[in-house]
Amino acid sequence: MVQVIGRYRSFQAVMNPFDGKYSPEFREQAVELVKATGKTVAEVARDLQINDTTLGNWVKADRAERGEPDSSGLLPLTAEERAELTRLRRENAKLKTEREILKKAAAFFVTESTR
């Protein structure tokens, strides 16, 4: 159980014992603490007894979902955009492989037909 001082009630870091992931509710509350208290990610993470990198990733993802630019001024990808990018990269790799196979097959048939 984690005690948070101020207007926030205490809440527990609910983790699924099978996959080691925190509940979505806990993640939302942790991100809200960073936004509302003015504390750094490291301070809130220490208060909640979680890794500061983990909390930082949650905060970054929340900012991306809300369309806030990152420190470089660029808009980060939303979860939906990241999923689409992953899908397109896989599709691109598959198409490249298929193209290579077709090139080799065409070369094979050209050499066979000239014999």
Any overview of this molecule?
Residues 1-9 have low confidence and may be disordered. It is built from four helices and no strands. It folds into two domains: 1-76, Arc Repressor Mutant, subunit A (Orthogonal Bundle); 77-115. Helix 1 crosses helix 3 and helix 2 packs across helix 3. With 115 residues, the chain is an all-alpha fold.
Radius of gyration: 24 Å
Largest sheet: none
Extended strand count = 0
**Helix and strand succession?**
HHHH
Number of domains: 2
**Rounded average pLDDT:** 84
**Architecture of the largest domain, CATH level 2?**
Orthogonal Bundle
- Total number of helical segments? 4
Residue share in helix = 55-70%
CA distance, first residue to last residue: 79 Å
CATH class (first level) name of the largest domain: Mainly Alpha
Give a short overview:
By secondary structure, the protein is mostly helical. Helices cover 62% and strands 0% of the residues.
Properties at a glance:
Arc Repressor Mutant, subunit A; mainly alpha; 115 residues; disordered N terminus
Q: How is the topology of this model organized?
A:
Blueprint (H helix, E strand, L loop, with lengths): L23 H14 L3 H8 L3 H14 L13 H35 L2
